[in-house]
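Q: I'm teaching a short session on how sequence maps to structure, and I want students to see two examples side by side rather than one. Could you give me a first protein with its sequence written out and its structure tokens following it? Keep the formatting plain so it prints cleanly on a handout.
A: Of course. Example one:
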Amino acid sequence: MRIVFMGSPAFALPTLERLIASEHELAAVVTQPDQPAGRGRRLRPPPAKELALEHGLSVLQPPNVNAEASLAALRELAPETVVVAAYGQILKQPLLDIPRRGLLNVHASLLPRHRGAAPATAAILAGDAETGVTILEIVLALDAGPMLARRSLAIDDADTTGSLNAKLSQLGAELLMETLPVWSSGEITPVPQDDALATHAPSVQASDAVIDWSVPAVDVWRRVRAYAPWPVARTTLAGQPLRILKARPLDVAHAEQPGTVFALPEGVDNGDGAGFAVSCGAGALAVVEAQRAGKRALTGAELLRGVRGLIGSRLGE
């Protein structure tokens, strides 16, 4: 089958690798434009571009994939199908009409739950016990097309968005390669989604990661995991930025105002480096690893030893 692949970040790589190694003809890779990154703001190519060029594949990087010039280039490629995995732009109907057999998407959730740009983040924030991947046909509505296959994956208490996406990217690549041949031969009957069960997983903004200590500790803990590796859950200590890298919730009673730092209660295990607790709207958060601006990451115990007057201070003021 003649395929155009559309994808950009690391999540796309396992699917692209499997397509490169397959018997399918990969006509081109469409990915996002290079973006400035790092202190020098030098242009950095998307991971999918780097992999494509390593294998001598044609790469297209349209700023607007729906523009007429981009559509003309895609028509010239004459793909039978387009496979999409975390591409990063909304596809409009003229593009959807190009491939003869339609477009397939590798989506990192068990649809119709968590439609949108950040499904792994949304699953952690919601406290879901499991998530998974869905292979679906793309229609004009966001992640609303009929489903061809789904496969579930348990969410571990230690999972972050980074670790969960890494697992889901591999699972999605496997499921796509199992699905492609039976779909192309007409052996799969697509299953419509139940829109009444749909939830939305919007793009993550940097401001989302500011910790609200008035919510329950379990919710703060989920935010710490959900916003790793970006934008990283953060608060302030004495008016200066403090990033919370690892933490765990404590089901303890306290009379402290939310955000107040207090010593770990007697009997609470600190073998993971937790050095102190922070009061929340319900329960408390044991801080396992944190980082001050311009400093290296420290365990909670190291931070406690290095910051005079930490106990009794209030974070986020």
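Q: Perfect. Now a second example for contrast.
A: Example two:
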Amino acid sequence: MPRKADIRSEAERLFAFFQAQGGQPVETDLLQPAETLLDLYGEDIRARAYVTGDAVRGELMMRPDFTVPVVQMHMSDGAEPARYTYMGEVFRMQEAGTGRASEYMQVGYEVFDRTDPAAADAEVFSLFHEALAPLGLRAATGDIGILAAAVKGLSTSERRKAALMRHIWRPSRFRALLERFAGRGPAPIQREALVNQLQETAPGDLIDEAGPELGLRSRDDVLERLNALISDATVDPLPEAELDAVTAILSLRETAPNALYHLTEISEVLPSLTQALETLEARIEALAARGVAVDTLPFEGSYGRSTMEYYDGFVFGFYPEGEDMPAVATGGRYDALTRVLGQGRTIPAVGGVIRPEQVLRVAAGGRS
């Protein structure tokens, strides 16, 4: 493990690099309001964050990342366009036996610019590529927006599309839903039993038979849910061609230009992909204009789905070749997050973070 002094020195070097590229240095509080993070991620965040309380400020979490507070800061009073850089510790609880650090340094660079999102994507990726070039890392890229566009274009109910959208970042759950909606996988046993019961007993009568109301949900809430189950049971299965198209997106592993070609073929089944593919094409051109070797740049249809929950477009990462170590850097586009935290305002935004500790470990040949 590199010494803390060496990690901080490397962080300061990267911090200075991003400042030289136009990043305005910013700082965020170490303690973040838990309410904001819970609203964004739900109760799942409690399993990954250190939670504490304060008599005045209420429930707080030790900073799990920088993106949320930086977005809040910008949406509150930031000028446009804006480029920010930062450095400091983040804190995340880890499972026993993983060997992963629960406290580590991050250095980041974020761009808020509505002029040309594809150019902003290329700017961030190329700067990270330049900063990490001496390490000979393997790049990975993807686009959550393509999968989201595919889901929105499926021939199924809006409720089922919403369920799939909620679980885009949970690959196993997403796949199970996709299979069930296509008629290939069974519904959960309890759900199926309830639907069968609703075919014999009206929802209101079933609620009355259940006894007094307990818990937080009202009778109207439960009735709405039961009627939704009845309606969902009548939805036709997802067409096989559409299921195969989504499966092809998820399994796609190609160079960026070849991925664009294959995705264009898939768009014949899912025309909803058209705009997302225009964005991908513009990004490839912008990356090439910045000197990135796009003909060999990897693209994966599933990349970023299990680790980058607030990204909704371009995603990227840099990894050691053949090393069983965490990513040295990750990043991506998070336009929807600015809308959620902007109280009605939104601006295209993209950024990423580098872990200085990992930079030093790779530079030392992977030695602890």
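Q: What should students look for in example two?
A: Point them to this: The CA atoms of residues 54 and 60 lie 7 Å apart. Also worth mentioning: The first strand starts at residue 24 and ends at 25.
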